[in-house]
Amino acid sequence: MSNDTRTQTHPVRAVIFDLSGTVIDHGSRGPAVAFVELFARHGVAISEAEARQPMGLHKRDHIAALLQEPEIAGRWTRVHGRAPGQPELDHLYAAFTPLQIEVLAHHSEVLPGVPELAAELRRRGIPYAATTGFDSPMIMEIIPAVRAQGFSPDVFVCPDLVGGGRPAPWMVFHAARVMNAYPLSRFVKAGDTAADIGEAQNAGMWAVAVVATGNEIGLSAEQLAALPAAERESRFAAARRKFMALGAHYVIDSTADLLPVMEEIGARIARGERP
Fold it and tell me: Where are the domains positioned within the chain?
């Protein structure tokens, strides 16, 4: 579905969503589980916290970043007798693709409030797209399931389609062309990682960071509910501070909270403000 910017009246021209932790998979559990399992299958233990540090990048770049971490590289060297290099990266990424497909099948539930938000965007004539760190083969099987749950963007854009992932803006540029929507200074990006904020900044979009359901907290809905209220709020506050320091224009608990923020952004755009 394309959008004609000449007939659209809302100040916000389009919305770009991340996937895991933003519109599906509370806590971005799928990618984290897959990275921990990938390294475990090669005899190297990494923690979930370590696995989450580069989240939001293209998954090959994510593996490369993990291999460059001194502590992880040291563990690899002790187990395999040599420091990880390009051959190890190639091998790990090849092994990661089928593993991520397997894991994502169990982490593709659309988050509460997202179908209602998507329906409201359609009602208002605002197109929306999804960009991700997953390559196309990793998400082909979950796209029908996600669409069936009420999240059906104009286009899903993966790094392999455009020659690179976040924080580069190439996926956003591709989505804008497909949606026939512009200028990007009137786009809103919603995501749950530093790489999402970087993508928004490099594309010239308004950046909205998602806290409660995302990678920064990294907990399932059940795990989050089980936390004492004071600890939960402490974690949220730390995540909010981090995202604001990185340059997010707004920070929200979940993507279901996006519409009021879009109205604020729309008012700022109407006053002539840019991201």
Answer: 14-28+108-270, 30-104
| Options 4, 25, 59, 242, the catalytic residue | 59
pTM, whole model, 2 decimals? 0.91
Q: Return d(Cα 159, Cα 8) in angstroms, integer.
A: 29
How far, CA to CA in Å, does 103 sit from each of 29, 33, 139, 161?
9, 8, 11, 22
- 160 flagged as catalytic: no
- 168-213 pLDDT, tens digit each: 999 999 999 999 999 999 999 999 999 999 999 999 999 999 999 9
Among this protein's residues, is 189 annotated catalytic?
A: no
What CATH number is given for 30-104 in this structure?
Answer: 1.10.150.240
Contact 243, 253 (CB under 8 A): no
Q: Check 18, 61, 135, 154 and give the catalytic one.
A: 18
pLDDT (tens digit per residue) in 83-112 = 999 999 999 999 999 999 999 889 999 999
List, for the chain, all residue ranges whose pLDDT scores fall below the cut of 50: 1-6
Domain 14-28+108-270 has CATH 1.10.10.60: no
